[in-house]
Specification:
The chain has two helices and no strands. The longest helix has 38 residues. The mean pLDDT is 76.
Length: 76
């Protein structure tokens, strides 16, 4: 499916009438940003390797399980 020059001109005129000339620039800008972000993400450039989160030995010492006593249900 190839678009000829006539079809492209027709689509440009219809899109201009629908979205107006001022909104067409914003639409083109958004489309360009989307394509750029998609290409960047598909190449894996957008991923960031974060170091594994570790706890300090001090934090590990202070984390004790909370001891609770079982309570009898209230039947009143």
């Amino acid at each position: 499916m190839h678009l000829g020059i006539g079809e492209i001109v027709f689509l440009a005129i219809v899109l201009t009438l629908i979205f107006s000339a001022s909104r067409m620039s914003a639409l083109g800008n958004a489309l360009g940003k989307f394509i750029h972000a998609f290409r960047k993400a598909s190449q894996g450039e957008d991923f960031i390797d974060l170091p594994a989160q570790t706890t300090s030995p001090k934090e590990e010492q202070n984390t004790e399980p909370v001891k609770t006593t079982p309570q009898k249900p209230n039947l009143n």
